[in-house]
Design a protein that fits this description.
483 residues, mainly beta, 32-stranded antiparallel beta sheet, 4 helices, 32 strands
Length: 483
């Protein structure tokens, strides 16, 4: 799970692009008021060609060619084009060829554009290229831009259909730009000072992360983002990481992500561990994963080459992104595969109980060793604890391993170098220890007329076991998955 730092960076990037009002706040104020167009020539040496047609209403349709500049002085807005058509009754300015729109919070270029004076909005079409004051750009076939205007709207809105590409420029506290991020979606909407929506096959790409989903939403004021309908976040590089679910929510504070919530078939996969549950709740601090809670209607499952645990819920504690403890709560189960170099068996070693705690090496050496996986030190089972494990037979002529099954109020298994060292039972203990048979032993018994066999009673673990007193012992423990 050391890929959490990469995840945090990726999540911070899900701001998509700062909404129009937010980036404008970094520069000049938003233009307001009704636009009163004033025309002039683009080239003072060559005035535009003008044609006027009076309408029955008394308004004029005006046609201008040879380079046109239209300004709204009170709003600090300028529209430039090769030619223009102004329809008086409709209050519509149609711009044709090399359109250039400029105002304090937006610069836009396109092939064609319409400016509707009645509702103060710009419609740009054809090779649209928009630039925000932060340097973030939007490229697409069409953009609808609605500016602030009295009695019409109090906040800006930009709608870009046709699968535009947004290139987000981010800067650190010193103003130095970081590698850009791109956002591609069927439609992107920026609403006012805080809200951004991306809908339809959303793809968010950074040098180290790709995030996909059917739709995304972000509120820069509350520092909340959501990826919906099958989102997947893939962190690339030397610490690959994948997070998926039906919905992924991201919560931030002071421009840093401090919580990630994956709901609906949540799954996180990294080199260190795979964690699955209906809900995965990640807590982060300073860009590092600190704790994970997993729960839901289905069972929560954590496994990697060192451990395999299943329970109704899991509490994974990893301060400063180093695994220390896993608490498996309610009907907990942990299992492993015995050392295949010493034991040949199709059975798994396992531990059951109402609750299981797993403790990992937290020594200074282990904490500083970021290349290897944390080693399991102890497993403790509480409440109706049961344990089954296999031991290499002392007699090399024996067939199969020795078997140890125990029950108790509490069972503790201690490990060293990924091998079991001791098994301690606290409270009333019952169990059995069985040595494997030797080749020909059954034939010898039959020759003596001894046909007695052990008859193990049924157990709630679904494993038939005999009763008896089980000694504490040790055996090697290796990786495995819950069946």
């Amino acid at each position: 799970m050391n890929a959490a730092r990469v995840l945090a960076v990726a999540m911070a990037g899900l701001g998509l692009c700062a909404p129009l009002g937010k980036v404008a706040a970094q520069g000049a104020p938003a233009p307001s008021g009704q636009c009163q167009l004033v025309y002039s020539a683009r080239d003072t040496m060559s005035p535009p060609r003008v044609s006027l047609i009076r309408q029955p209403s008394g308004q004029f349709n005006t046609f201008l060619g040879g380079g046109v500049v239209a300004r709204c002085p009170a709003q600090n807005m300028t529209l430039i084009a090769d030619s223009a058509e102004n329809y008086g009754d409709q209050k519509l300015l149609h711009l044709i060829g090399h359109v250039h729109y400029v105002e304090p919070r937006l610069t836009l270029d396109s092939d064609l554009a319409n400016y509707y004076q009645l509702d103060e909005h710009l419609q740009a079409q054809g090779n649209v290229h928009a630039v925000l004051p932060s340097g973030t750009t939007l490229d697409g076939p069409r953009v609808e831009y609605y500016r602030v205007a009295p009695n019409i709207r109090t906040e800006t809105q930009m709608v870009a259909p046709g699968r535009p590409t947004i290139t987000v420029i981010e800067r650190d506290s010193t103003g130095k730009p970081s590698p850009p991020m791109t956002v591609v979606a069927n439609t992107v909407t920026m609403q006012g000072d805080t809200l951004t929506y991306a809908g339809g096959r959303v793809v968010i790409t950074r040098p180290d992360v790709i995030a996909t989903g059917d739709s995304a939403a972000m509120n820069s004021q509350t520092e909340f983002a959501r990826l919906m309908n099958g989102p997947i976040i893939r962190a690339r590089g030397d610490r690959p990481f994948t997070l998926s679910g039906t919905v992924i929510d991201l919560f931030g504070h002071s421009k840093a992500i401090d919580r990630v919530l994956a709901r609906g078939q949540g799954k996180s996969v990294s080199r260190d561990a795979t964690l699955t549950a209906d809900t995965l709740d990640f807590a982060l601090s300073d860009g590092r994963l600190q704790r994970v809670h997993a729960w839901g209607k289905g069972r929560a499952h954590a496994f990697n080459p060192s451990y395999d645990m299943v329970a109704d819920s899991l509490d994974v504690r990893m301060p400063d992104q180093r695994l220390r403890e896993i608490h498996a709560l309610r009907d907990a189960f942990a299992q492993s595969v015995p050392d295949t170099t010493k034991i040949h068996s199709s059975e798994h070693d396992w531990l059951r109980g109402d609750t299981i705690y797993a403790y990992f090496d937290s020594s200074a050496k282990a904490v500083n060793d970021t290349a290897s996986q944390p080693q399991l030190e102890r497993l403790i089972s509480f409440g109706k604890a049961r344990s089954f494990y296999q031991i290499a037979a002392k007699d090399t002529a024996a067939v199969g391993p020795a078997v140890n099954y125990v029950r108790g109020d509490r069972i503790q298994v201690a490990f060293l170098d990924r091998q079991v060292q001791t098994v301690t039972i606290i409270g009333q203990a019952t169990g059995v220890y069985l040595d494997p048979s030797k080749p020909g032993a059954d034939s010898a018994k039959r020759a003596r007329g001894d046909t007695t066999k052990a008859s193990p009673p049924a157990d709630t673990t679904k494993k038939p076991v005999p009763r008896g007193v089980a000694p504490a012992t040790s055996h090697p423990l290796h990786a495995g998955r819950a069946s």
